[in-house]
Design goal:
The protein is of the alpha+beta class. Helices cover about 45% and strands about 25% of the residues. The chain has ten helices and ten strands. Strands 3-2-1-4-5 form a five-stranded mixed sheet. A five-stranded mixed sheet has the order 8-7-6-9-10. The protein is globular.
């Protein structure tokens, strides 16, 4: 993997995947309860030469806030020796553990690791979960990750993504499931700038929407179980907009998946 690819993957993990931890803790009653009433600061970081990059979480009375960048006030900091090490750990290609700063907060460390393990299990799923709530949560997480992942690659000046963004007029690309607006996400792009958002875009009809007939159909594509063309023919996936833009969004989805898996 080139130096640039390491950076792109790192941006996706730090600014796309790790912020999903807040969604997971809020969606899983067991995790929500474990942090109930708690006040703390948790961090995942990596050394990058003389610099340090990371994402931290401020937990106030059990409520999570995601903050991009590092803090020196974390109670626990999972610090990887390099961006490659962080990418390898979260893509599942390396089992080398990070340096645990604040390891003596044993109870808190166990809760933090349980939340991270839950995230890893969800995003690393290769089969459709059996639990209905978990299915819906996984679709939501993927929609959030894809929209933020594309935006992060543009901000990191990924050649292909930034070229697309620079040429684009003001447009919205969305992911949605029929009758489940709570799972939706979209990205707005205009003249080189991108912004990922959660929920439905309501000001006008999006320029393009990748819509799924139901949660199972969405997971068939997101988990790469079903074929794009076959899913479209069977009505499991509807491209609302020009098909060429659907192919482009599909390519971006594959690109983010490749970075997330260490490819």
């Amino acid at each position: 993997m080139s130096t640039s690819d390491v950076l792109y993957a790192n941006r996706i993990f730090l600014n796309g995947a790790l912020p999903l931890l807040k969604v997971i803790v809020e969606s899983k009653p067991g995790l929500t309860k474990s942090f109930q009433g708690m006040n703390t600061v948790l961090q995942v970081s990596a050394l990058n030469g003389k610099e340090k990059v990371g994402t931290h979480f401020i937990v106030e009375d059990g409520q999570w806030q995601v903050v991009k960048g590092i803090t020196n006030e974390a109670d626990i900091d999972l610090q990887f020796p390099s961006m490659e090490a962080l990418n390898g750990f979260f893509s599942g290609t390396s089992k080398k553990l990070p340096k645990i700063i604040g390891w003596y907060h044993v109870g808190l460390l166990i809760k933090f690791l349980k939340a991270l393990l839950s995230m890893a299990n969800l995003l690393g799923a290769v089969n459709v979960p059996k639990d209905e709530d978990e299915k819906e949560l996984l679709v939501k997480l993927y929609f959030y990750l894809l929209s933020s992942g594309v935006s992060q690659l543009n901000k990191a000046t990924h050649p292909e993504v930034s070229k697309w963004a620079k040429k684009s007029p003001d447009r919205v690309y969305a992911w949605a499931v029929n009758d489940r607006p709570d799972l939706s996400a979209y990205i707005r792009v205009k003249a080189g700038k991108t912004k990922a958002c959660r929920g439905e875009y309501k000001r006008s009809k999006p320029f393009f929407t990748m819509r799924f007939s139901d949660v199972e159909s969405a997971l068939g594509i997101l988990l790469q179980i079903d074929d794009f063309l076959d899913a479209t023919v069977k009505g499991k996936m509807i491209m609302e907009g020009a098909p060429e833009y659907g192919a482009m969004i599909g390519d971006f989805m594959m690109m983010i998946g490749s970075y997330a898996k260490g490819g």
